[in-house]
Amino acid sequence: MKNIKHKLKRLDLNVAYACNIKCSGCISLSDFPRKGVVSPEDVNNWLDYWHNYLDIDVIVLFGGEPLINSKILDICKCIRKYYPTTIIRLITNGYLLDNFESDCWFDFEPFEMQVSIHRLDHESNINKKIKKIIKTRKGWITSVEQLNQHQQIKFTLGNFVIFKSKFKDFVAPYGVKNNKLVALRSDPIAAHKLCGSPNTPVLYKGKLYKCPPVANLIDFLNENWNNYKSCDRHEDLEQFINQVGHPESVCAQCPDNTNAIIFDHFDKGNVRVNEKNIN
To answer: Higher pLDDT residue, 224 or 219?
Structure first.
């Protein structure tokens, strides 16, 4: 009997828990002490199962900082094994791009790279790293577009796209009580409206979660006060897919507009970068 495949426009794949910078309000909680990366073997095991049941338009390599993972190219190969035509999108802060050959990413087309500028005073340095990739090919088309009220520059060459994005304000997906990170008890509908990832399921340690903040909070706090059930088998997949983009009780663990903490990422104090990452 042929498996029924469910359509997903986007699936984030968490490939690193650690990050090389510390951004206040990070949806992956990288502003807290987190360590480790995901192995290609684990990704292979996860996709070997889920590719039978999921038809995905875009798979997003997500962290932490994905480029901390020295096996990131092997992970891209693994994705291509199971999803030969799906767009692979790498989301990176750009500081570690020089750790890889500038033209290596073209092996995985269709491919998108979103480089997020987190410190305006470091933008010129990140620009140089982006230009190294662009200089490996000719014929790029440059355009400017809006993304969720933020302007980004788009460089396109066939099935390869680089976005340079700037995001000013980040809503922290958590609360703080007695100097400790806590899950909140907000209004779930209001919290979902405020959410920065309302339509973004994530494959986290082999299981499907509603969004990155849900997966990271449950894992980091080792607490699941509302008994949220991640999806770890295809029998539950239809119900999971039907909830994508809609508020659930678990959304209450994130802030609504009455208790949100908003961090300005154009303020240097909210984005801490080790000096060795800058050059």
So the answer is: 219
